[in-house]
User: Which sequence fits this backbone?
């Protein structure tokens, strides 16, 4: 995952344009993504697909002809979606178009202007303080024209038509945790799920934040009832605790599965209630859809100072935390795949486990068997039983498998 992040890191992505396409092409080396192109100007609910933005170069030169801010050194130096510009400005006018972070004077901020035509440069505050009076040459060799908005989608069919949706935003330039970590985890998860038997169908989305989710919802409104559960995955490579944000419903199966996995893990992490701010859960959980989709991340955006700055780089994301996040998401999916309701075939008193070879001596395993037998009355799922007994879902599932083999359970 870290290698894929490193490969994608230098690309200047935005909500449209060749950087996004190039990113999808790299993901297609791992998974057979379908690429969609939606024309600029397309109306999607209350929004309009913007013009396509592409950039080749940008810089600020001082009076001595030295490039003091250079897009080739970091794509964060340019206000993302800057209109083309070629002019001479004095320092006072230049400063109106400069963005810095006085609290973190060494870092370059990440700024965008998607829906208001503007231009600008981002630089370290330390460098900003050294700028001298005089003429500056500013060049932004970009285009903002009618074109397309691109997104990637992968559908993996399962035994059921019901779908689990996994969504990652892919519109940020050189930012490792915000955007690339989620893309990388989702790609590796898709690669794994492709190879296994699936009870549910899976749909993976790699979309530009906000507008991408709005487009996908608008184009797929007729089939949204198939979405049984889902996760927005983002910010999964930093060293902070795992944080799960519940869906708007609050008690969806995905909320309960994620909370169960987090509570049962050695480092339990944080559970947040739904709020109408954040990533694309905002669109998926808008009242007109209210989809059962939560958000899986580590430190929430805005709670780490490196967020939306040049310090969210390849050193900010760690292979070990990416792995931990990946395994937690796999555990959540395991719960969803295996969460079934069974019916105890011997409900009048306990069945005699000993004669079936299921009762050697009282141990954890036997207690899990007793929980499954007692609550498998047709109205409790394995997740209900795990929650109520305090056992890990995996232990309850293993107990259910043993009882099924002994013909003491049938699937409801
Ligand atoms: Zn962001």
Assistant:
């Amino acid at each position: 995952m870290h290698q894929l992040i490193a490969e994608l890191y230098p690309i200047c992505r935005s909500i449209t344009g060749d950087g996004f396409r190039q990113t999808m092409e790299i993901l297609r080396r791992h998974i057979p993504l379908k690429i969609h192109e939606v024309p600029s100007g397309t109306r999607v609910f209350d929004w309009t697909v913007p013009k396509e933005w592409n950039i080749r170069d940008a810089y600020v030169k001082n009076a001595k002809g030295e490039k003091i801010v250079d897009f080739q050194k970091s794509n964060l130096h340019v206000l993302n979606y800057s209109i083309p510009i070629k002019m001479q400005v004095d320092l006072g006018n230049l400063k109106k178009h400069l963005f810095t972070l006085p609290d973190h004077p060494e870092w370059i901020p990440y700024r965008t202007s998607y829906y208001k035509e503007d231009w600008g440069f981002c630089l370290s505050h330390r460098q900003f303080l050294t700028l001298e009076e005089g003429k500056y040459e500013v060049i932004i060799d970009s285009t903002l024209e009618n074109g397309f908005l691109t997104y990637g989608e992968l559908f993996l069919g399962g035994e059921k038509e019901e779908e689990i949706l996994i969504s990652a935003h892919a519109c940020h330039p050189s930012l490792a945790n915000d955007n690339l970590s989620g893309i990388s985890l989702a790609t590796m998860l898709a690669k794994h799920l492709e190879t296994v038997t699936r009870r549910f169908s899976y749909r993976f989305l790699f979309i530009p934040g906000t507008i991408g989710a709005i487009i996908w919802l608008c184009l797929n409104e007729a089939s949204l009832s198939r979405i049984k559960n889902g996760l927005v995955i983002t910010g999964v490579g930093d060293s902070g605790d795992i944080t799960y944000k519940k869906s708007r419903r609050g008690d969806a199966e995905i909320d309960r599965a994620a909370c169960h996995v987090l509570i049962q893990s050695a480092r339990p992490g944080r559970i947040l209630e739904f709020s109408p701010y954040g990533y694309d859960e905002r669109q998926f959980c808008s009242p007109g859809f209210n989809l059962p989709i939560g958000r899986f991340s580590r430190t929430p955006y805005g709670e780490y100072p490196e967020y939306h700055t040049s310090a969210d780089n390849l050193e900010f994301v760690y292979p070990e935390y990416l792995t931990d996040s990946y395994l937690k998401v796999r555990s959540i999916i395991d719960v969803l795949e295996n969460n079934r309701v069974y019916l105890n075939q011997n409900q009048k008193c306990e069945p005699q486990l000993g004669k079936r070879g299921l009762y050697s001596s009282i141990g954890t395993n036997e207690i899990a068997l007793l929980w499954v037998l007692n609550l498998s009355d047709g109205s409790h799922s394995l997740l209900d039983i795990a929650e109520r007994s305090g056992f890990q879902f995996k232990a309850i599932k293993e107990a259910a498998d043993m009882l099924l083999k002994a013909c003491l359970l049938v699937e409801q």
Q: What stands out?
A: The radius of gyration is 25 Å. The longest strand covers residues 135-145. The chain has twelve helices and 19 strands.
